[in-house]
Design brief:
about 325 residues, elongated
Length: about 325
């Protein structure tokens, strides 16, 4: 992949709605042929950012270039230079598959010379060859998703924005969709994708983690798991879980503790030293420990630890 030319450049971007700051002075770059993930919970500022980068929302402050065009001054040129797939699939349910494709081809000004070739490509990519006359509203969500992706890249844009593209989609369809994303990136398309699925973030080349409008970490998935959080991770399976969590929150050497399924994940300075010290302490408080030891850090652990630290620090300032 050629990552020399930034496809997206963001500097101190801000979006405010009245007194509410949805996006708070964020900066990053995405490069050609890169799958760039924007990771965060609902309401963190992901969709607001993507709408500014697509020329759909005007920034309050800062600036951003997409395909070399300023998103505030050259909004129409930006829109013609990108593909965009929103959370709710921008398809018309009362049109047939072929009618949707032709509509988007017209909107993106796909020339008649290549129209049939592009239509064939979309149908093949979406697995809808032979179903051109099916009403789009009757398609399963996974098929709609692939059709929406095909329509978004009919004009072969160099940059593709996908906003929560796999919400409500079954795991098999999600995996197939990500295979298509990787194919596009291999062809040199910059794919900018927002998601709150931590497993999907593993498929990205680089990630930005955003929380309450601010960037809390950035890097490759491996870099984030190895370096974003200071300390080591422990898995603790015990009963009762709530009592153990309350006790661990008061321990000065436990940097973070959170519930993960039917267990606790703890961030500590040194894993084995913490196990040796904490196990007898837990037992002395009537807690039955069934499993306690180090495990690898996941992206979800990184995100929980980083956002928990921000919330804790904000509460201390109040």
């Amino acid at each position: 992949m050629n990552h020399e030319i930034p496809s997206v450049v963001v500097r101190d971007l801000v979006k405010q709605f009245g007194n509410f700051v949805a996006v708070d002075h964020i900066s990053f770059e995405a490069h050609r042929g890169e799958i760039f993930g924007f990771l965060g919970p609902n309401g963190s500022g992901k969709s607001t950012t993507i709408r500014m980068l697509c020329g759909l929302l005007r920034p309050t402050a800062g600036h951003a270039l997409v395909a070399g065009y300023d998103v505030a001054r050259d909004r129409e040129t930006v829109r013609q230079s990108i593909g965009y797939m929103s959370q709710k699939f921008s398809l018309y349910n009362d049109l047939t598959v072929i009618e949707n494709i032709r509509f988007f081809a017209g909107m993106y000004e796909v020339s008649s010379a290549i129209l049939q070739q592009r239509i064939g490509w979309v149908l093949n990519m979406a697995g809808l060859s032979g179903r051109e006359l099916a009403l789009t509203g009757t398609l399963a969500v996974g098929w709609k998703q692939r059709l929406a992706l095909g329509c978004a890249v009919l004009h072969r844009p160099p940059i593709l924005f996908l906003d929560e593209p796999t919400s409500g989609v079954d795991p098999i369809s999600r995996r197939h969709f990500w295979d298509l994303i990787h194919q596009l990136a291999d062809e040199g398309v910059t794919v900018f994708v927002t998601t709150h699925y931590m497993d999907e973030a593993e498929y990205c080349d680089r990630l930005v983690m955003i929380h309450q409008g601010k960037i809390v970490a950035s890097g490759s998935p491996l870099e984030l798991k190895q370096h974003a959080v200071e300390g080591e991770l422990l898995l603790l399976e015990c009963e009762p879980l709530g009592l153990a969590l309350d006790l661990l929150h008061t321990d000065p050497d436990v940097l973070d503790a959170a519930v993960f399924g039917n267990a606790l994940h703890l961030v500590v300075p040194q894993a084995m030293a913490a196990v040796a010290r904490l196990r007898p302490c837990l037992t002395a408080h009537g807690i039955t420990v069934t499993k306690f030891g180090p495990i690898p850090m996941s992206l979800e652990d990184v995100f929980v630890a980083l956002t928990g630290k921000r919330v804790k620090s904000a509460n201390q300032e109040v």
